Amino acid sequence: MTRRGTGAQGRRGTGAQTHGRTGVPAHRRTVWPCVGVALSVTVLAAGGCRSSSEPPVDVPAALPVLRGADISALERIEQAGGVFRDGGQAGDAISILRAHGGNLFRLRLFVNPDHTEVQVNDLDYTVRMATRIKAAGAKLLLDFHYSDTWADPGHQTTPAAWASLGIDSLERQVETYSAGVITRLKQAGALPDIVQVGNEIDAGIFWPLGRVGGTDDTPLQWSQFTRLLKAGVRGVRSALGSGDSVRIMLHYSQGVSSGGTQWFFDHVVASGVPFDLIGLSYYPWWHGPLGYLRDNLQATALRFGRDVMVVETAHPWRAGGWEDGATALAAMTWAISPQGQAQFLRDVLAAVATLPGGRGIGVVWWYPEAIQVPGLFVWGGGSLALFDAGGNVLPAAAAFGGN
C-alpha cells in the first residue's frame, strides 16, 4: 500500500505512477463497475450492509496455513507508551496475537531510515523484532523495501548511498546487501521463513534504473528491473546453508486487478526471475469488491502455478481516520464496527483458503499495532488496528483461529 500523503506519515500517495497497460495511475485506479454514489454515502452512514449487532460468525471451516500481521512499528509504539491488552490484562502484543491464532509476522526493512515517526526499521531494529517473533514460536516474513523510506507503487526511491551507482554496480550492491541481511538474521537465530524481494513492486524498484510501466514499459527497463530482482534473490539464497528453507515472494499491490497481475507476472516469469510465492494487497476502500479479489486469486494461482498470499489487508473497526482518499467506498459492504472488521477478515481468509489445489496459503493484516500514542502519528488514527483505543484486542483477531 502507499504510505505517503499530505503529512509526514500519510498513508495514501499522490504520485502519478501509471500502470503499464492502462496509463491510469495505479494507486488511484478503480477496476470494478461503479455501483453508484448514493450507495457509497449509504455505506458510510449506515456502517455497511451488515448490522453491527449481527452475532459473531464462526471462524471459517478452512483456514489458510499462514495467518498473521505486519507488526513493523510495534517496538516504536511500545517505546512511545503503547500498551496492549487481552481481557483487560496488559501483555505482549505478539503473544496476544499468537493466542488468537496468528502464526506469522511480517517485518519491513529500510536501508538507512531517518528514524522519524515509525520510519525506524533499520537492520538493528529488525533483528530485535525478528528475534522476538521467533522466540514466540511464529514464522517470519522479511519485507525488503530496498529504500531508505516507504516503497510502494508510487515511490521506489533508490537508497541515498546507492543513488549514483550504475546498473552493474547497483546489481552487485543489491546482491551483497541482501546476503548480508540474511546472514545477520541467521546469526541471530532469526532466519526468515519467507523473504519478500521488494514491496509492492508494480512499477519496479530502484528508480529510475529499475522503473517499469507507463513510458518505462520498455525491454531495456524490464531487463534492468529483473536483473535487480534476480540480484536480490541471489543474495538471499547465497546466505543459506544446505538445511535452510526460505521461500521467495514477489509482491504486486493491485489485488483485484487480474489484468494488471497477469501483465506484471507474465513479464517476470518470461525474464526468468526465480520466486516461489505471489503476494497481493487488498484494501477494499481503495481496490474494490471482495469478489474481484477472489477472482484474481484464482486466476493468478492457476496461471502461474504458485502459492498465493494476501500479504497486506485491513478494514476499519470505527469511522474516522481511514476515509481520506478512498476511491471505492461502495465496496465497503461490511459494518464499520468491531463485528464488521471481524467479518471482513473471515471473508478474506475464506477467499484465500478455498483456492484450488490449496494454493491460497496466507493472509497478513497490515499494522495491527497502530494504536494512538502521544506524539506519534499512526495510520488511520488507530481505526484500522486490531486493538481498540485502549489497547484491547478486537474480535477480528480471533478470526485467525485462536481464542
What does this structure look like?
The chain has helices at about 35-45, 75-80, 95-100, 125-135, 165-185, 220-240, 260-270, 285, 290-305, 340-355; strands at about 65-70, 85, 90, 105-110, 140-145, 195, 245-250, 275-280, 305-315, 360-365. The chain is of the alpha/beta class and about 400 residues long. The protein has one domain: TIM Barrel (Alpha-Beta Barrel). Strands 1-4-5-6-7-8-9-10 form an eight-stranded parallel β-barrel, surrounded by four helices. Strands 2-3 form a two-stranded antiparallel ribbon. Strand 2 and strand 3 (about 90) form a beta hairpin. The two termini are about 30 Å apart.
Number of helical runs? 10
The CATH class assignment is: Alpha Beta
Radius of gyration in whole Å, from Cα?
Answer: 20 Å
Question: How many structural units, i.e. domains?
Answer: 1
Q: Can you describe this structure in just a few lines?
A:
By secondary structure, this protein is α/β, with parallel strands linked by helices.
